[in-house]
Structure formats: structure tokens, C-alpha cells
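Changelog excerpt

This revision adds worked examples to the README so contributors can see how folded entries look when concatenated. The first example is reproduced verbatim below.
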Amino acid sequence: MERQERILVDCKEANRYRIWVPNLRFAHEAIHSIPGAYWISDLNRWVVPVEHDTLRKIVTRIGARIRYEGNLELKSLQQELQIRRYSKQTIDAYLWTNRKLIVATGKNPKAIDEIDIREFLQSLVSDGRVSYSTYNQAISALRFYHGKLLRKRRVYAIRPPRRVRKLPGILSQSEVARILESATNLKHKLLLTLTYSAGLRVSEST
């Protein structure tokens, strides 16, 4: 079986990855082509701006797999989640959220404070593409790692948001009239009229 190359990924600055790639010309050329990427010869690492799908693009071009190191390794978090028999999907989600926070701050996990976490969560809300369940899971992931494992008690002051319940849509009089008129069977029409006028549930009218 052909051995798959790997890249090592860490984060020491906000919104920037530090990446080690195999000593292959095409691998370095692939990263060099990314706008804003630069080489640190003393560390033998590339510094790459964090953008949407940056890592995926690098992995696709090089044909390698990712191995997180340093601040992004989160080995203790992964082990604790596995010991507690969390599902693989939840483990991946918790690791993803905590890594995203580290990348946003550029800090070692132990140095991240409550303000960093609140600002990160606010950015998720501002992004506008995060559902209630995803946002709630992000809070749980951060509280698990920073609260339970790193023992930062102030993290528990961050509460999940209240779920906003949307009111059901209401039909206009003309829309109701069209529905009633569409019934050609007298029995069905009577049933629809009775259900609407009495405000019955479907289960109550059948």
C-alpha cells in the first residue's frame, strides 16, 4: 500500500496556520501559491492565512492527510471524550469547535479566557450561518474543555441562548376560501369548513 503523506498543522497567531509539509517541490509550490503565505526558515514551517477551506485546498493539492500538533493537537480533550464514550460525530464537533477558537485567538488553550470565548461565540452569531443547535453545541464543547478539563470556572457563566420559537404562518381569508372551494366532494368540503371554523386539530377532525 502506498504511504500517504501528511502535513503538520499548528497555530501560534490569530487567524494563521503554521504548516509543515513534506520536502517535496510540488508541496511547497502548492502552499507558496496561496495568497499571504510565507516561509519561516528557522522553524521549517509555512505560515498561511486562515480562510474558508484553506486546509482542504492544501490537502487536495498535495494529496496528504492532516495531523494537528502543538496548540491544535488537543490530545487530552480527545482522550477524555473517548473515555466518556462520546460518539465520533460529537468528538469531531468538539475538537473542531475548540480548534476554531484557538485559531481565532492564536493562543495556547490555557491562556484563553472568558472574554476570548465570548468574542468567539459572538462571531459565530454575527456570521449568521450557524443554527441554534450548532451554536448550542459549540457552547457545550467549549464548556467541556475549558470548564471541565482546564478548570476555568467562569466558563460556566456562559449560558446557552433561549430558543426562539417561530409562530406558525396564518392563512389569509382569500387563501382559506380557495382551499374550501377546491374541495369538490361535499363531505370533504363540510369537513374542511368544520375544521377551520371550530379551530380543530387534524387529529380532532378525523
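The second example, added in the same revision:
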Amino acid sequence: MHPNIVAVHAFGHADDTHFLAMEFVVAAPLDAVLRAVHKTPMAELNGRDLWSAVVHHLSAQSASEDTDTPSAAWQSGYLPTMLGLIAQIADALDFANQHGVIHRDVKPANILVRPDGTALLADFGLAKEAARPSMTVTGEFAGTPAYVSPEQATEAKEVNFKTDIYSLGATLYHMIAGRPPFPVQNPPTARVLLEILDRPAQSLL
């Protein structure tokens, strides 16, 4: 197993309920970390602020972990630290792809961050084998609207590893901008998917 992927121990279903049993990880979901740090202008942030957000989340959850001192992973600026986290998830996705697996739901909520600076890709509940057709249990839309690729937005039957690259890019956009490239509106799914297909994301420059 790859060091940046949360291990899956078992999956299946009991009656009408499907389940996925994963490794227990003491870590903070990236979406919670982003909500905490983006209360401060990005120009004023650094890696230690990200570490503090991770530690604060774990403390609020009463999770035990050695969080006394930030490791070397947190000693850079905000952007280099974020890029370091993204690089770890990119490695995990490359490993998954080499083994014929497409995640299909890469987003901040499915990236877990440990206090030592390790990033972990979690929740393969929507993953599919590259050689098999894409289908959910219920036949409904698969993925999270704000981060899906155009091919997922059109529910194309042939979805390959590029969809995970797009979603990782959308996640990095959120990390920099403080919001997804196509923020969810009301009603969410239909409008966001149309925006993904019809217009480019707002430039960060």
C-alpha cells in the first residue's frame, strides 16, 4: 500500500447498506484546515499556521497525537507547504492509476493531514477500475460537483485517470483562492455542472 493512501480493510454490503472499512487515522480533513486558515489573508499565512489548524482540529476532536512542535514540513511559506501536500496526493493518485484505479472524488474533504505533514488520500467509495464502466450503486451522479471534471459532469461512460488530475487541480485552486473554482450555488448540482462545461474558472492572477 502507498504511504499516502488510507488503507481499505474491507468493503461490502449488509442488506441494503453498502460499507467501506478504512484504516483509522489521526488527522484533520483538509477542508476543515482550509476553513480555519482562510479566515486570515493568504499573504499573512505560513506553514506553521496550517500546522496550528491541524492541531486545533485534532484537539477539538479529542484525538491523541504528538503535536508539541511542528516538524520541518511546516517551516516553509503557505504556498510551498500547500504544494508539498498536493505533491503527496499526486503521488498517491499516480500509484492508484498504475494499479488501474480511478478515485473519482478527489476533494479537500477526502484529503487527511497529519500533524507531521503527511497528506493521505481517503475514501475510495466512488473509485472504479479503469477497465470497467463507471456506475454508482443508485445510478445517480458520482462525485462532488464543485471538483468534478468536465467528463464526469457529462456522466461520460469512459472516465480515465485525467479526471483525478482535474479534481486535484480544482483542490489546489481552492487551497490558493479560498474557494473552489466553481462554488456551489442553489440549486447546486445542475448549475455548477453547467459552469464547469461552459466557462473557465476565474483567474487567480
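Reviewer comment on example two: Residues 26 and 103 are 22 Å apart (CA to CA). The first strand starts at residue 8 and ends at 14.
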